[in-house]
Amino acid sequence: MPQITNHKLVNATYSDLDRNDGNLTPNYIAVHYTAGISVSGSISHLKKVKFGYHVIIDRNGTITQCVPFNKRARHAGVSNWKGLSGLNDHSIGICLANRWYVTRFSNGSYGWVDTHNNPIGSFLIEVQVLKAEHINGAESNLYWEKYTTAQLNAFREVCQVLVQTYSGIKDLIGHDEISMGRKPDPGPAFPFTDFYPLFTNRGNDNGNTFTVQTTDGKLNVRKGMSGNFKLLRQLVNGNKVHIRSEGYMYEENIPKPNGWVSISLEGTMDHIGFVNKSFLRVV
Ligand SMILES: [Zn+2]
Predict the structure, then answer these.
(1) For residue 163, what is the domain's CATH number?
(2) Which of 75, 113, 147, 226 has its CA 20 to 30 A from that of 25?
(3) pTM
């Protein structure tokens, strides 16, 4: 079990990505993937682009810390969650080495392709990928590289010691949940529900309550963030829900709210689909 002294994991490698970007009192742990193969490649890229995570976990479970846990790191960008915006101010960022989604080749293996569709990097086999739809509805039935057991065990240990050390931490959130429409990581291969029991305060973090109010009395809950997506269910006027997060679209490279929100039913945490925010009134 790792330990924390002076806001750093004892015995973890430290590779400095601290930008002196202000202090942090963490309320959440935000999880990401590198969209890369090697952690060293990711760290040199992060140095160049001036982004950073508090912790990066390699495929073999090796833990590298890059920013002390009481300092802000630039990992989330434009983001919102349960009424908070700018999750860099509220969360510890943990990133797992993972290739994102991969292509299936005719010989049954999987991997990355270059812009000419030629394979690059090593190949993956069937058990290393998960065919799944993304929660945001936008990318259906892609093959996502699975996280390794060593990596998920290391992630669990880091989460455990963080929750013990920083009592303000309430929940585990994905970059794809707080920057919907902008970011697909950590994607459907990340097993969120395995880790929720570590976050004993998460049940008290439902967020604000909203009431459904439409002119015809019905509100469509959709699979993705537009009226083109499949209808999952209908709510009726007076139903109460919580807004988990608001989605984004880009206008001239600037992310703006797209008017669609991920909701959960009153008193619960789980995403049930997307609705147009204009039909919700704060209680
Ligand atoms: Zn991310």
Answers:
(1) 3.40.80.10
(2) 147
(3) 0.94
